[in-house]
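REVIEWER CHECKLIST
Item 1: Sequence provided? yes
Item 2: Single chain? yes
Item 3: Sequence as submitted:
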Amino acid sequence: MKLKIGVIGCGNMGAALIGGLVQTKVTARSIIAWDSNAKRRQALARSLKIRLAQSNPEVVEASQVILLAV
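Item 4: Structure as written out by the authors:
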């Protein structure tokens, strides 16, 4: 079973957490993230190939584990 991980907050801490997860056995497609800064979340999605949510509730709905990096 693949663990679905959601990240709310894609600033320095959130980006570091996501980057670390992607370097392990967690696939980028199993991570969904959201940040209030659209440019930041788009840049992170482009660089790490993660999925983006349109809102915090979407992250919660799509995830089994939520990481808060706010």
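Item 5: Key structural point noted by reviewer: The chain has a mean pLDDT of 94.
Item 6: Recommendation: ____
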